[in-house]
Design goal:
Blueprint lengths: L1 H16 L13 H5 L7 H26 L4 H6 L1 E9 L3 E4 H15 E15 L5 E15 L7 E17 L2 E16 L7
Parallel strand pairs: 1-6
Antiparallel strand pairs: 1-2, 3-4, 4-5, 5-6
């Protein structure tokens, strides 16, 4: 039964996120081909950019770890700028530390266990190196309490993509915006066979 759901998720993500190109005779423009029109970066600049990309990926994984640690509210707020935004289709849109904290505090009462798998980082730094965008895949496995019978928590599988915006403040990367595009969500009721 579980393998069936994993196949559904895989097909959904692969077909919905595949790049669409009308003219396949032209090559895809890569960052290296775009660099040809600019002065080459020095070794120090290249290493700095790599360090920034690594710091942003690490920030994303810290966010997931704070979620998976029972929704560590202080930790979650620490990765956002004060007026940062967290949004997910079907879940809500929250701006600022107070709203983000309140949402996750409420969520922690219904989601009893959670594990975020965040993969395939595609991070693009702005030319000035002070902001960036990032796209990631999400596979989230959790146990969520039933509304009518809170004593029972069913497994839930969620898959989607993140579209994030980052900003560097005083040498530290933070989320300006974290947006989840939920593409698949399936509750698997305990004790029900398909």
């Amino acid at each position: 039964m579980f393998v069936k759901h994993i196949r559904e998720i895989y097909m959904l993500l692969m077909w919905n996120d595949a790049p669409r190109r009308e003219d396949r005779s032209k090559p895809i423009e890569s960052e290296s081909s775009m660099q040809q029109n600019r002065e080459p970066l020095t070794l120090e600049e290249r290493v700095g950019r790599l360090e920034d990309v690594t710091a942003i990926a690490t920030l994303k994984y810290r966010y997931a770890a704070f979620c998976d640690a029972g929704y560590d509210l202080d930790g979650l707020c620490s990765v956002f700028v004060p007026d940062g935004r967290w949004a997910a289709n079907g879940y809500g849109d929250f701006k600022g530390h107070a709203e983000i904290r309140a949402y996750f505090a409420k969520l922690s009462t219904t989601v009893v266990e959670v594990l975020h798998y965040v993969t395939s980082p595609r991070i693009e730094l702005a030319e000035d190196g002070q902001s960036a965008t990032g796209r990631f895949y999400l596979l989230c496995l959790c146990k969520s309490r039933r509304r009518q019978v809170p004593a029972i928590a069913d497994p839930v599988v969620i898959a989607g993509t993140y579209e994030d915006q980052f900003v560097k403040i005083d040498g530290r990367w933070l989320f300006r915006e974290l947006v989840v595009n939920v593409r698949y969500s399936k509750r698997i009721p305990v004790g029900i066979e398909e």
